[in-house]
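Troubleshooting entry. The earlier prediction with manganese (II) ion gave an output that would not parse, so I re-checked the input for stray whitespace and re-submitted. Clean input:
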Amino acid sequence: MSEQQKASEVRKPQHSEEFKAFVKEEWAPRSTPAPERAAVAPYAAARRAAVSAAYEGQRLIIPAGGLKVRSNDCDYAFRPHSAFAHLTGLGADREPDAVLVLEPLEAGGHEAILYIKPDSGRESDEFFADSRYGEFWVGPRPTLEDIEAELGLTARDIDGFAAAAAKDAGAVTVRLVRDADTSLTAELDAARVANGAADESMAELDDELATLLSLLRMTKDEWEVEQMRAAIAATRTGFEAVLAGLRDAVERGRGERWVEGVFGLHARHEGNGVGYDSICAAGDHANTLHWVKNTGDVKDGDLILIDAGVEVDSLFTADITRTVPVSGTFTDAQREVYDVVHAAQQAGMDAVRPGAKFSDIHDAAMRVIAERLLQWGLLPEGVTVEQTLDKDHGGWHKRWMVHGTSHHLGLDVHDCALATRAEYLDAQLRPGMILTVEPGLYFKADDLKAPERFRGIGVRIEDDVLVTEDGHENLSAAMPRTSDEVEAWIARVQER
Ligand code: GLY
Ligand code: MN
Ligand code: MN
C-alpha cells in the first residue's frame, strides 16, 4: 500500500451494515431527461471520420487520462488529454479514466466506442463511500445513455475496455495515444508485446498516430473558431479587469500576484480557467520569458507584461500578451522599445496569408527587430542585418529576443506540437489555422550591452490570428496594441 493510500485509510470511516442499507433507501427516481446532442458532436464525428479514413482496419485507442494526485488524497482538477477532447468533444473535467476506441468494422470504417466509468447508481457503496467517483462526493455522473445522447457515439462501461482492447490481439494492428495515461500505456504495451509486436514498430505506429492527430488540429473547423473567439473575448474581459485594478496592484504590494488573481478570477468565472500559468511580470521580471512566480511588486514608472489566456469550457485557449505602463503613460525609453516591438508584430501579422510559409512570420518580425538593433548600434561592429539574420552563422540579434514569433494555438496553448518540422515550420499557411504573433524585445537590467536607458525594459505583444481565404483576421483586434491606443485603453477602463 502506498503512503498515500495508507494516509487515506487512516481517515476512512467504518460503515455498519445498518448504515449501508439505510443510506441507499428512498431516493426519488431521477427524472432528469437525457442531455441534448452537443453542438460539437457532428464536428467531433467529422474529425473521427478523418482519423478512421487514415487507419482503415486498425484499432485506435485514445485515452482521456486519469486523475492526478496533487498531494496526499487531493487531485488536480481533471483535464482530459487534448486528442481525447478533440475526438469526443468532451471538455472541462470530463471524463477521467474514459477511453475512446475507434474499432475497425469488417464492412470498413470504424465504430466510435467511448468506454467510461458510468454512474454506478444508489445501490452501490460507491454512491456514498467513494470520494473520487461517488455521487455523495462529486455529484451524479453520466450514464451510458447520457453519453450516447450527448455525443452520438456508442458508450460502454470501462470494465469492458481491457478485453475489447485485447480482442483479436496479434491479428489487428493497435495504435495508442501514449502520453495520456502511462499505466494504461504500460498495460497495452505488455499486451501487444505478448502478441508478437516489436517495441520499435509499436512506438512507430503510435508516433504516426500522434503526428496525424496533431495535424488534424492544424486547421480549425467553424465550431473551433467560435470557441477561440469566446476564449479571446473572455481574455479581454480579464485584461480589462486587470487594467482597471492596477492601482490596487500597486498599493497592495506583491502586485504581480494580485494581477494574476484578478485575471484568474475572470478566467474561472467565464471559462474553465487559465489555459496556462499567467505571466505577470513587472519591471525587469518581463525579461524572464516564463516569469510565472509573479511574486514582485507592481510599481509606477515600470511596465507590466501580462501574458495570459482564458481556456473556455471546451478547453480552447487564448494566448495574449499586453505590456502596459503601470502609471498609464509610457516613458520615452519604454515607448521607443514598445513601438519597435509593435512594428515587428505588424510586419509578422502582415505576413500571415494562405500560401505564405509559417516561418515567414518570424522572418518578417525579426527583420524589423534586427534593423532597429543595428540602428541602435547594438550588433557587433560591422555586422549587417543580412548577416545577423543568417540562420546558420548569424543570430546576434537573438540576444534580445531568443524565442520564436509564432505557434499554433487551440486546445493546447502550443497546439499541434507533434507535427513534423516539414508540416509545421516549413509548411504553408492554410485558411483555418490559428496562430500567435508575438515578438518581443528584452533588455535585462544587468545587460551591459544594452543602452542604459533600456535596461530593465521588456516588451512583448501577442495576438491570436486566424488565417482566412485571402489573408488573416486578428481575432484579438479588440484589445488595443499601439502605444497611444494602450494609454487611451488604460484611461478608459480606469474611468469606468
Ligand atoms: N504564453 C506562452 C506563449 O506565449 O507561448
Ligand atoms: Mn503567451
Ligand atoms: Mn504564445
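This one parsed fine. The chain has a mean pLDDT of 95.
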